[in-house]
Every structure is written in C-alpha cells, then in structure tokens.
Amino acid sequence: MDASSCKNLQRLCLYLFVGYALIIQAVAAEKEVPGTRFGESVGALTLNFHYCYSCGYQKAFDGYVNILRTKFPQIRIQGSNYQPPVINYQLAKLAFLIKIVSIAWVLWSSGLFTIVNTPIRWNRQQATKLYACVMIFFLGNAIEGHLIMTGAFEISLNDMPIWSKLQARRMPSPQELMQIIHNQLQFCDQPGNPNFVK
Fold first, then answer.
1. Residue 171, CA atoms < 13 Å, CB-side half-sphere
2. Where are the membrane-spanning stretches (predicted)?
3. Strands 36-38 and 46-51
4. The CATH number of 32-39+48-83+152-190 is which of 3.50.50.60, 3.40.30.10, 3.20.20.210, 3.40.50.300?
5. Where are the domains of the chain?
6. pLDDT for 39
7. What's the CA gap between 109 and 101, in Å, rounded?
8. Range with the lowest mean pLDDT among 38-42, 86-90, 160-164?
9. Short-list 80, 69, 63, 81, CA closest to 44
10. CA dihedral 43, 44, 45, 48 (to 10 degrees)
11. Which of 19, 30, 72, 142 is a good FRET partner for 39, with 20 to 30 A between their CA atoms?
12. pLDDT tier for residue 87 given thresholds of 50, 70 and 90
C-alpha cells in the first residue's frame, strides 16, 4: 500500500467515524427516555419513579412495578429518567466534542511538529493510530457516562416524596416500599384529612 492510498484510507475512516458520531449525537439529543405508565385509571393515586436510566435502573423499576401491581392494583405507576444537572449535561457534550476532535487530530495529523522537536509520546501515538483512537474513544465514553450518571432512584406518591436514593444512599427493599405505601394509603383514608390529595 503506497502513502497516498494510506492517506485516503485514513481520510475515509475519519469521515465515516465523524459522520457516525454526529448522527449518534443528533439521535441521542432527540431521543428522551419515554415515561412509562401502568394502570391508567383517572383519579387514582399516582406513584412516580424517577431513576437514572444510564445506571441501569430500568430493570429495578420494572421489578418494583411487577411487585407493586400485585399488591396495590389501584395505584397508577409512572417511571421516567432522572435528568442530570444542566452543567453535567453540558460538560458531557463538551467531552464528546473533545473526543471527536482528538480522534480526528490523531488520524489526520502527520507533520504538526515540523518546527519544534517532536515529543516522544507523539511519535508513539502516530505509530499506533488505531490504538490511540480506540483509547481516546473509550476514555471519552467513560468521562461522558460518569458526567450523566446521577445514581438517582426517587419515588413519590402523588408528588409527595416517599423515598430518595440520593439521600438514603440505597434502594428500598420491596417490603420497605410496600410498608411506606401502605402507611401513606392509611393516612389517605383517614376521615377529615385535607392534606392528602386523592
């Protein structure tokens, strides 16, 4: 393979990678985790779960729904993604941009250090471009993922918080959650209680 065909192959790989990354970024920006609703009865109590989707808490939510639907069929259950703070979201987008620019820089650059001495690390990186690109990609993904993970699993009944993983630093056991809901339902059923909306 001569030098010009190698350069063309590098450019083609770069264009494909940048195009793929931009498409993924656009799809991710448009795609929001849909709210999930179970038991759509009007006027019923609503149990809201706000969980960290990127932490994999969707399965935990589904497990709680299966347990709670058998015990409390009258409660409407909703689940949605707990959004990260705006600054973390913006920093994750910046990390994505830096990742793409770094990969493009490694693939496209060859003679950046013609005037000054070339650093040894730069020579090594140019010798193993594929390895450098893969490492930048995975390191960038790790940073992005860390920035958008909230670790949240917040539960509220009729917009009144009943459990916060951010405060308790653990998930509730199914028995704990059922006891809390049972206590709230007893509180709700007390005559003359104007503080709880049915």
1. 16
2. 12-29, 94-118, 130-153
3. unpaired
4. 3.40.30.10
5. 32-39+48-83+152-190
6. 44
7. 11
8. 38-42
9. 69
10. -90
11. 30
12. very high
- What percent of the chain lies above the pLDDT cut of 70? 66
List pLDDT tens digits, range 37-80: 444 444 568 889 999 888 888 898 999 899 888 888 888 889 98
Residue 158: both structure tokens together: 């009729």
Q: How far apart are CA 97 and CA 99, in angstroms?
A: 5
Residue 76, classed as helix, strand or coil, is: strand
Cβ neighbour number for residue 181 with a 10 Å cutoff: 20
Q: Give SS3 for 85.
A: coil
Nearest alpha carbon to residue 85 among 150, 38, 29, 37: 150
pTM of the model: 0.58
pLDDT tier at 198, thresholds 50, 70, 90: very low
Mean pLDDT, the chain, whole residue set: 77
SS3 content of the chain, % helix, strand, coil (to 5): 60, 15, 30
Separation between Cα atoms, residue 96 and residue 140, nearest integer Å:
7
DSSP string for 5-45: HHHHHHHHHHHHHHHHHHHHHHHHHH--PPPEEE---TT--
